[in-house]
Amino acid sequence: MADAQHDEAHEDHGNTLAAWFLTLSWIVVWTIAGVAIIVADGKVVLWTVIALVASVIFAVIAGVMKKAGMGRTEPRPTPQTREEWEAERAAATTDGKAEDTKGDEEGDKEPATAAAK
Length: 117
Known about the structure:
single chain, 2 domains, transmembrane helix, membrane
């Protein structure tokens, strides 16, 4: 139940321009903040706040990009349920056994013919 509510409320950007923009911008922002903390002056709180604010700004920009058509344009694919997967597997196994049985019957005839010669 919680997963269904989560999926309805959360739409990921997908493998799109908006998603890549958001990912790369966050990597750059947090890398700069980390380097500044280590190398520059060591003000952890200052650089963390700067990185958080920049992250929120870039998230808003990515959201606008998504609304502008640079995000996911079709619904996210949903995985099969267990019942669907089992039914598909059973059908594939049944088809495979039917083919194997035909092959075995034909295969049994050939060695018998070869042994008779």
